[in-house]
Design brief:
Blueprint: H1 16-30, E1 47-52, H2 58-69, E2 73-78, H3 90-99, E3 104-109, H4 114-121, E4 125-131, H5 137-151, E5 158-162, H6 169-180, E6 184-188, E7 204-206, H7 209-214, E8 218-221, H8 237-244, H9 248-252, E9 259-261, H10 274-277, H11 284-311
Helix pairs in contact: 1-11, 2-11, 3-4, 5-6, 5-11
The protein binds phosphoric acid mono(formamide)ester.
Length: about 300
């Protein structure tokens, strides 16, 4: 199949075949990072702009590394130190970046839908690096890539997503992607942190952490997003850890081969114990490494689709 989208805005609207194409393309790019000269010329002459309205370590650096491995030029814009502070709108900022002859904008924004608004208003490629509570597609793709690497398949895998589901764009993108690829997903959180109607996405819901872990092949642990918790749904951090924290005692009751994932940043002692974050079952840093190959694939596919549109 051929990738025809100029943008990657989320996983909700991607087909199973499109998801598989990103994963197989990422697989072929993974080897590049093992070479002495970690570069291929796929995006030579292209310019990628990382436009970040929210803080980031992993995603921003990962996109920069991915673009550079593809031989693109990379420019980083942090909203805090840009003309956004002088009142420039998102659309005006995007149009100016397009006028500066950039080819791809990678955007992180605090508002759900910001990436889609930008994509509608510029002719160049837009990649969503996380928009509000909506989606974080490349995080989910790298999570799914890591699962596939570990288990050789996604179909039939049982994945527990534990934590602040309500505020989590990572959870939403993971659910869209995993369900389409045939995994069975259970979400586990305190009732106030489970969005109403989430079952309609095809997941099971439980408030019992042992129940969530008992049959799981993988647990994806989410950060408690206290900064987004306007309703103070879980005021006591220690209380949360006691009821939902991923600990040695809890993992001992799960399958022996269960793997532990986390999108980062980790809050040690709040959603996961330090011991588990660093244990052999933890693939957290492998996820970060896989993010490079996945983002190389995404940048490559959207750029090629854009080129095809231009020459059509
Ligand atoms: N996982 C993730 O999005 O991390 P950053 O916020 O550091 O990019």
């Amino acid at each position: 199949m051929e990738w025809t989208r100029k943008d990657l805005l989320g996983l909700e609207n991607l087909s199973k075949e499109e998801l598989e194409l990103v994963l197989t393309t990422a697989d072929s790019f993974k080897e590049v990072s093992t070479r002495e000269i970690k570069k291929v010329p796929a995006l030579r002459g292209k310019t990628v702009v990382n436009l970040f309205y929210e803080p980031s370590t992993r995603t921003r650096v990962s996109f920069e590394v991915a673009a550079k491995r593809l031989s693109a030029d990379v420019i980083n814009i942090a909203a805090e130190t840009s003309s956004v502070k002088k009142g420039e709108t998102l659309i005006d900022t995007g149009r100016n970046i397009q006028s500066l002859k950039a080819d791809i904008i990678v955007i992180r924004h605090g508002c759900s839908g910001a990436a889609a608004v930008l994509a509608k208003n510029v002719g160049i490629c837009v990649v969503n690096a996380g928009d509000g509570w909506h989606e974080h597609p490349t995080q989910a793709l790298l999570d799914i890539f890591t699962l596939k690497e570990k288990f050789g398949r996604i179909k039939g895998l049982r994945v527990a997503i534990v934590g602040d589901i309500a505020h989590s764009r990572v959870a939403r993108s993971n659910i869209w992607g995993l369900i389409k690829l045939g995994a069975k997903v259970t979400v586990c959180a305190p009732p106030l942190l489970v969005p109403a109607g989430i079952e309609k996405m095809g997941v099971c819901v439980t408030g019992d952490i042992d129940d969530a872990l008992c049959a799981a092949d993988a647990v994806n642990v989410l950060r408690m997003q206290f900064e987004r918790d306007q309703h103070n749904a879980f005021p006591e951090q220690l209380e949360y850890f006691k009821k939902f924290g991923i600990t040695r005692e809890r993992l001992e009751k799960a399958k022996k081969r269960i793997i532990v994932m986390h999108p980062g940043p980790i809050n040690r002692g709040i959603e996961i114990s330090s011991e588990i974050a660093d244990c052999p079952q933890s693939v957290i840093l492998e996820q970060v490494t896989n993010g490079i190959a996945v983002r190389m694939a995404v940048l490559f596919l959207v750029s090629r689709a854009c080129e095809r549109r231009k020459s059509a």
